[in-house]
Amino acid sequence: MSKALLVIDVQNDFCPGGALAVPGGDEVIAPINEMMADFETVVLTQDWHPAGHSSFASSHAGKQPFETAELDYGTQVLWPDHCVQNSDGAKFHPALRVDGDLIIRKGFRTAIDSYSAFFENDQVTPTGLEGYLRTRGIKELTLVGLATDFCVAFSAMDARRLGFDVSVVLDACRAIDLDGSLETALNNMRGRGVLFS
Ligand code: VGL
Ligand code: ZN
Q1: DSSP letters of 140-195?
Q2: Contact, 113 vs 107, CB < 8 A?
Q3: Which residues of 39-68 are buried (b: 16+ CB within 10 A; e: fewer)?
Q4: Taking Cα atoms as reference points, which of 186, 191, 132, 195 lies closest to residue 166?
Q5: Which residues contact 34 (CB under 8 A, 6 or more apart)?
Q6: Rounded to whole angstroms, what are the CA distances from 116 to 63, 64, 94, 95, 151?
Q7: What is the pTM assigned to this prediction?
Q8: Cβ of 147 below 6 Å from ligand 1
Q9: Which pLDDT score is estimated for 1?
Q10: Do 147 and 175 touch, CB atoms closer than 8 A?
Q11: What pLDDT is attached to residue 99?
C-alpha cells in the first residue's frame, strides 16, 4: 500500500515519429504495462504545453531547438514545439495501458517549464503530487518513462528532496542525451540516493 509507480510522459511526441522523439522511446511501453500490475497506486504524467510555450525555440526569435535561453527562473533548454495541449502528440502512446489512479499534467503555464512531476522549473511552484502521495500514505516511488535525463531525473531528484524512497528502472526509461545530459543526470540521481534497478 505504501508504494507507487510513477509513469513519466509516455506520449506520442516523445516516441519515434513524434516532435521530440526520444531514441527507442516506445520500447519502454511493454515493460511499463507489465509493471503496472504490481502497484496498487499508479500515477501517470503528461507534458501539457499551451501553444507558444516559453520552452519552445519557436517562441524565441533567432533561437533553434536545443539551444538555451535565460528565462526568469534560469537557463532553459529550448525544444521543438511538443506536447501541445489536446494535440495528437500530447496523447499517451496508444499502446500504453492508461489505467492509472491519477494523471498529472505539467508545463501548462506559458512562462515556466516543468520537467519534474513535483515542482515546475522554478523549483518552488508545486504540482500537487506531493500532497496526493502523502495523503495516500505512499513512501516509496518507482519511476519509469521518458526522458531519463530530463523529466524522469528531475522527478526523481525532487522526490528524494521530499524524503521519498526512490528507484528508477532504467530498462523502462530512455534518454534524450543532449551534450552528456544522461551521464550528468545519472550522477546527480546517484548522489541524491536514487536507486537504480
Ligand atoms: C521532456 C523535454 C521537454 C521530458 C519534456 O519529458 O523529459 N523533455 N519536455
Ligand atoms: Zn516539455
Answers
A1: EEEEEEE-IIIIIHHHHHHHHHTT-EEEEEEEEEE----TTHHHHHHHHHHHTT-E
A2: yes
A3: bebbbbbbbbbeeebbbbbeebeeeeeeee
A4: 195
A5: none
A6: 24, 23, 23, 24, 5
A7: 0.97
A8: yes
A9: 57
A10: yes
A11: 87
Cell of 22: 526520444
Low-confidence ranges of the chain (pLDDT < 70): 1
Kindly name the residue from 15, 47, 83, 106 that is annotated as catalytic.
106
Site of grid cell 508504494:
3
Neighbours of ion ligand 2 (CB under 5 A): 47
Instruction: Provide the 3-class DSSP secondary structure of residue 28.
Output: helix
Q: Is residue 173 among the annotated active site residues?
A: no
- Residue 146 in contact with ligand 1 by CB distance below 6 A: yes
Q: Is the CB–ligand 1 distance for residue 150 below 6 Å?
A: yes
What b-and-e string marks burial along 82-103, b requiring 16 or more CB atoms within 10 Å of the CB? bbbeebebbebbeebbeebebe
What is the distance between the alpha carbons of residues 98 and 149, in angstroms, rounded to a whole number?
23
Q: Give the span between the Cα atoms of 46 and 29, in whole angstroms.
A: 15
Query: 22: CA distance to ligand 1 center in Å?
Result: 9
